[in-house]
Specification:
The complex is a heterodimer of chains A (308) and B (282).
Chain A lengths: L11 H28 L2 E5 L2 E4 L3 H8 L4 H34 L5 H13 L2 H12 L5 H8 L13 H16 L1 H12 L3 H9 L4 H12 L1 H15 L4 H7 L12 H10 L8 H34 L1
Antiparallel strand pairs in A: 1-2
Helix pairs in contact in A: 1-14, 2-3, 3-7, 3-8, 3-11, 4-8, 5-12, 9-10, 11-14, 13-14
Chain B lengths: L4 H35 L4 H6 L13 H9 L2 H32 L5 H13 L6 H10 L6 H25 L3 H9 L4 H8 L4 H17 L2 H6 L8 H11 L4 H31 L5
Helix pairs in contact in B: 3-13, 4-7, 4-10, 4-12, 5-7, 7-10, 10-13, 12-13
Classes of the chains: A mainly alpha (308), B mainly alpha (282).
Chain lengths: 308, 282
């Protein structure tokens, strides 16, 4: 979409304009990322020495009894974490957006309140929910009792079976504002004429939404999906805040981010290992890259042909 | 359309249900935060005895705030966060605007490649390069400095900033720039002229750049964990870890950490949400 094609001054000014951004981005993001990937092919000999090891680290990560059980568990947990976001966060975000897009006087008010948790730091959110769910304080329990569900309450964060889903739902609670606002922006961008015709033909709001609006916002559905994927496979803060680097109980909430942190920096008894840490980060990179490429070449491309 | 009593009831249900759902969800979103704010002003006994009540003259207490102010170095954390966020934000907007201008304005060889190169950073999180970043910071002697954090945050924020800003800069009318060129204005001058025209976009990007920087835990934890350079997010995380059993202190420090962001949010939420819905971020 280059619209300018005019007399060409000697492009020193172009270099001046682009230089700082390209330099900072290259030095502090691209080169370290490439270095990290490179390091995943090396072995830590001692403190400051590394020797080339080929794919040894990866083999270790997938099969060695010191690493493999942790890696596979973190990967599986991360997919559960992602699934909870896809199945709970994004549908609720879509529902809220659809309701907001209908209009009404209180719309701005609701929008502001529902988006609010998103701007708070994950650390604050983590502590808040730890207090709310704490059986010692009993707030969550009293709330459930008030609606007759008191028997449901349990130390959800402390039990291995429920901890991961609980943490994921807290993350959903915080970030539901993002899909909501993206869907909302897409929905209010649909020209009225399109839905008007359906209304006249006697279609219900429900039919209008699924037959006309939803197909039109499919590109946003894809964007929300890929943003959720990248965000989830890069998550760390909430679990570190609520459950520590060991992602307890018994590693039940361990995901790729916490595994990366522990492997890189070590934990109580185990020394940190930069090259194995780099290997975990390289796996995260591969997973995220695969997701982004699948999105770009399968989803985004298909949607485009759909529109034509 | 016929208006039988039944269809009128159905109509009011259709109007009513969305409000009910939105109200319920708003309560869910607001409730935990309000619980913390309200209880931070109560005595320990009242926090546990009557958590759902607002503080009364009998239960009002500022003991938690006294502990936090006495025992912690929150003011240093606040200052660190403010410096890091502000400097990173200004640098991102200025450097990003320059690059966006170059990409939007000039048709030169490699334009598309540079744009592609820069936009990789939109999708690939900078955290994945942490091992390399830490080494670089050690080599540059920037560990435990605010400068180190600022440089990382600028690099992290540039890709999206450039991507969005260059779309806005393409919308600036050509005539304006051409007229200035005929008058003999330098390209730098024209950049200075375009910059105020994209101010609304700068504002929106500013807010969205600021929030993740202010809230980041990862890089302060890894690059600058010392007491002198800790940011609010890291400071709160460590402080709360020590005071788990002092509920007054925990509730009041959470409140202190939340309030500045909440005030900013309430002040700017309109612009912020409008900027997304106006298509600033696609």
């Amino acid at each position: 979409m280059q619209q300018t094609k005019r007399r060409f001054v000697f492009p020193v000014h172009i270099a001046v304009f682009l230089g700082p951004a390209v330099l900072l981005y290259t030095v502090f993001m691209v080169v370290p990322l490439i270095n990290s990937l490179r390091l995943s092919f090396f072995e830590t000999v001692n403190q400051n020495q590394q020797s080339f090891a080929g794919l040894q680290n990866y083999i270790k990560l997938f099969t060695d009894s010191n690493f493999a059980p942790f890696f596979w568990r973190a990967l599986r947990n991360n997919f559960v974490f992602f699934a909870v976001h896809m199945l709970v966060q994004n549908p609720i975000g879509l529902l809220l957006a659809a309701l907001l897009a209908e209009g009404g006087r209180l719309r701005n008010f609701f929008r502001t309140i529902i988006f609010m948790p998103t701007v708070l730091s994950v650390v604050i959110i983590g502590f808040i929910w730890q207090l709310i769910l704490n059986p010692l304080w009993g707030v969550a329990e009293s709330m459930l009792e008030a609606v007759g569900l008191g028997a449901w309450f349990g130390p959800w964060l402390g039990k291995p079976e429920t901890a991961l889903v609980t943490v994921a739902l807290i993350s959903v609670w915080q970030f539901v504002g993002i899909p909501m606002i993206l869907f909302y922006a897409a929905l209010i961008g649909i020209p009225d004429e399109l839905t008007e015709a359906a209304r006249v033909d006697g279609a219900s709001a429900w039919e209008t939404f699924w037959r006309i609006k939803f197909p039109l916002i499919l590109p946003t559905v894809g964007i929300v999906g890929i943003l959720t994927f990248v965000g989830n496979f890069n998550a760390f803060d909430l679990i570190y805040t609520m459950k520590g680097a060991n992602a307890g109980p018994d590693f039940a909430t361990d995901i790729m981010g916490t595994l990366f942190y522990r492997t890189f920096f070590g934990q109580q008894l185990q020394l940190g290992n930069p090259t194995m840490g780099a290997t975990v980060a390289a796996m995260m990179f591969l997973i995220i890259l695969t997701g982004v490429l699948l999105y770009m070449f399968l989803w985004a491309r298909r949607i485009q042909t759909y529109e034509l | 359309m016929k208006t039988t009593p039944l269809s009128r009831t159905w109509h009011s249900v259709e109007r009513f249900v969305p409000i009910v759902i939105l109200t319920i969800y708003s309560i869910i979103a607001l409730f935990p935060v309000v619980m913390i704010l309200v209880n931070s002003f109560k005595s320990r006994k009242a926090i546990f005895g009557a958590p759902f009540q607002f503080p009364t003259s009998g239960t009002f207490s500022l003991i938690g705030y006294e502990t936090v102010i006495e025992r912690s170095t929150f003011h240093i954390y606040f200052l660190n966060s403010a410096i890091v966020t502000f400097v990173a934000l200004v640098l991102t907007l200025f450097i990003g605007a320059m690059a966006a201008f170059a990409l939007a304005e000039y048709d030169f060889r490699g334009n598309a490649w540079i744009a592609l190169y820069l936009s990789i950073g939109i999708m690939i999180p900078i955290r994945l390069g942490t091992v390399g970043i830490l080494r670089l910071m050690v080599d540059l002697k920037l560990v435990n400095t605010l400068t180190g954090l600022i440089l990382i945050y600028v690099a992290q924020s540039l890709p999206l900033t450039i991507f969005i800003l260059s779309q806005f800069m393409r919308q600036v009318p050509k005539d304006l720039k051409d007229a200035a060129r005929i008058d003999g204005a330098s390209e730098y001058r024209i950049f200075g002229m375009v910059l105020p025209l994209v101010r609304p976009a700068l504002g929106a990007i500013g807010i969205f750049t600021m929030i993740p920087i202010w809230n980041d835990l990862w890089f302060p934890l890894i690059i600058a964990p010392s007491a002198k350079t800790a940011t609010v997010t890291l400071g709160v995380q460590q402080f709360l870890g020590q005071f788990v059993s002092d509920w007054n202190a925990v509730l009041s420090s959470l409140t202190l950490a939340m309030v500045p962001i909440l005030i900013l949010y309430i002040l700017f939420s309109r612009q912020m949400i409008r900027s997304i819905t106006a298509g600033a971020i696609k």
